[in-house]
Predict the 3D structure of the following.
Amino acid sequence: MGLGPADWQGKPIIAILNTWSEFNPCHLHFKIVAENVKRGILQAGGLPLEIPVLSVSETFMKPSPMLYRNLLAMETEEVLRSQPADGAVLLGACDKTTPGLIMGGISSRLPFIFVPGGPMQKGNWRGTTLGSGSDAWKYWAERRAGNLTDEEWSEIEDGIARSNGHCMTMGTASTMTAIAETLGLTLPGASSIPANDMAHFRMAAESGRQIVENVWNDLRPANFLTEDSFTNAIVADMAIGGSTNAIVHLIAMAGRAGFSLPLSKFDEVSRYTPRLADLRPAGRFLMEDFYFAGGLPALLAQLTDILHGDTNTVTGKTLAENIGSAQIFNKEVIRTRENALSQEGGTAVLRGNLAPRGAVIKHAAMEPRFLKHTGPAVVFRDYEELAAKLDDDALNVTADSVLVLQNAGPVGGPGMPEWGMLPIPKRLLQAGVRDMLRISDARMSGTSYGACVLHVAPESAVGGPLAFVKDGDLITLDVAERKLTLEVSDEELNARKAAWKPAPTEFTRGYLSLFLREVTQADEGCDLRFLGSSGETPEPKIH
């Protein structure tokens, strides 16, 4: 109960880790958020100390911000260890900041609360509601097809981001903050509040007051997170139709708490979790609508029979207690169990000879005709070749073709960039095609959509079967059976493997060199974490 050496005249010292940056438009309001957190800490008798940490911006960081999630996790852990802090408030929003901060916070073993930055306001163009990311991909396709002028496209760009905050679709940012709330790391309802709503600043101040109480009560997430907490998080992810990126982040976060999440667990939970949130890109509405419909507590309250309600949270209450009085105020945005959008979750895990260690697909956000599909492969060896050949009239591609991108995984990218939503060739766009089966070892933006098979493991850059696919090979996807099959014989696959050679890397020093030396694959038991110094894969709980 008593304070350690970090106390200052009897006051607990609270570190506010702020990921504000002028290069991160999702976090531009964080200076105001931090001031409200400080106010709450002072009101509760604590001493706030603001510390800037890496802002992992989805917009500007190249080649992929995924490279830097672990760097933020390392910085968070070491800052909290090296500074005289009794507890922490972690400010994050943009995709990788949420898992990075939480991974470091868990490893620090201090009391902490996560304060999500909140989604931006709904976009608007000529009376049409726009959702960030999702409608950018949609209207960019129309522009490439010749259906939009440059002036119209500029108007869409001007109207799609009307305020501070992260993407207001159910992309990776909204998915990960919802997961943080379900894990019990935020105040109830915190993840749904729009960034510019005054309720957000009140929540920030209340978080400041709560963390001081948690320090006195020694309430540490590292101690109260359980395997059931992470099962609850998967339930929430499936029910909201969340981003495929949630899988790699949840595996990493669970690992910091000492738990292993196999890919089979995600598919198991998906099969019994109904999808209740009608949110873009898999639905119609946006996060502002979700908030006014009751937010995440209202959705979780529909799932009490499949949630572990006895898990603890930063409020000192259980999850069941936090959501006990929640109600739905718009049953179009948040469905009841009786009117679910589907009887299973939005993401499926695939296996087969093309992905022996797994792949994922967000089947809730694609054309149903691809749920079972066979087509000939059109292969691109890397993203540069894709960009060079995609719109070439000589490209042998039809609407039934399967676009395959190689060398875009954790090692090949490097860092598993969001290239998995391969653009549809211009010739097909002009013919009216708006979805195709696409396969890669990359990730895709959580705001994107389409029949995109992602996270193929092992990846092509380390000699996974994806590396051996050739133009014209038949590939079969069967979502119901969870199968992804390259229709060639084992003998032929083995012959291609024997002839394969890895490409040399251009990264020979610095953080990228370290990443490529130590990175693992995006499959079960692995989470893009750093390995031990021996080079051998440690047990999943060691991160």
About this structure: Residues 348-499 form a domain with the Glucose Oxidase; domain 1 fold (CATH 3.50.30.80). The chain has 18 helices and 14 strands.
